[in-house]
């Protein structure tokens, strides 16, 4: 069975077509600049056919999906003969609210519930809905499944998800911590439990999904009991361009300094803050580490390299905040079996893993500096000799989780 996985953003649409008999990717790609000038990059993975990488007109998501189907089935770039070889479509949906604690088959009622969650995720759910509607139009009569970023965190206890604000906002408006990156936290924690032989017993894990967006989760016996992102993905640790948790008064203070609206302040916190805000030149950790005088391959200082003090500070703030939440989650879990790093930075930055773990030495958690400097393309155990908890690198694969959930529901 083939499953098409769709991750629709407001002006982009990422896709991967999986053959779920062997979980191999047949093709993947990205429609970019939808509603603007339009660009499609399509990469066949299965048969050595060439990559398509061209500007094309993509006025809406519907044209994007039809361009994807055209490429998937074309003689020159295709990996399947016809549309009938797509057996199901899985969609990433960012916010599932209180209603969804697992993935679901999409029907009118589910679409209405995703629409109802737009008030909680105005930047993300409308784009996800555009992807769903475009597939309903272009790939009719094929079952579609919604996989929610929030679902895994639905197991959080009330004391973890309740904000200390007037309770009516929860009762009347569903305002609470939801958390995101749930498919990633679920996937990497599952692999870690399996590899450590902890699947059936009691277990305490902390997963650090450190990418452009970053969040941590405390996972007890396979269930999320707390996570750093909140009602939106702005809360928690500092990120590429997002501030993470700050004094909420800053929204008002920034507006008065700039003489602008509260909405403009939110833009500053979402798009101009985080490590970009401190460093000022880039939100990409490779640039920041290089500017801070680090060798990005080993995570060690490059002898004689100049050090940009703001780059160094941005990295210090990031590592400190990640470590601080790890400490908090060890309290939440009452101990720790394993600390897991994943996503772009967690998987690829020996420097960040080392900087975070330096803060944890006082509580007996450390990594092996030499193993940590090895480039991991797969599961890597970087635990230090005397560490009380395992420290692991586990590459994430959110698309595969979506494809697996889709197959399970469709079957
Ligand atoms: P993601 O959002 O998971 O794709 O992660 C993107 C982030 O991973 C960006 O900040 C990249 O700079 C970072 N990243 C990717 N490769 C490396 C690397 N070798 N060293 C440091 N950061 C990296």
What does this structure look like?
With 411 residues, the protein is of the alpha/beta class. Helices cover 37% and strands 18% of the residues. It has 15 helices and 14 strands. It has an eight-stranded mixed β-sheet with strand order 5-4-3-2-1-6-8-7, sandwiched between helices. Strands 11-10-9-12-14-13 form a six-stranded mixed β-sheet, with helices on both faces. Helix 1 crosses helix 3 and helix 10 (285-291) crosses helix 11 (309-333). The chain is globular. The termini are close together. The protein binds adenosine monophosphate. Residues 211-212, 240, 284-286, 289, 296, 343-345, 348-349 line the site of adenosine monophosphate.
What Rg do the Cα atoms give? 22 Å
Number of helices: 15
Heterogens: adenosine monophosphate
Determine the fraction of residues in helical runs and give it as a percent range: 25-40%
> What is the strand arrangement across the widest sheet?
5-4-3-2-1-6-8-7
Strand pairing plus helix content: what structural class? alpha/beta
Number of strands: 14
SSE pattern: EEEEEHEEHHEHHHEEEHHHHHEHHHEEH
Summarize model confidence as the mean pLDDT.
96
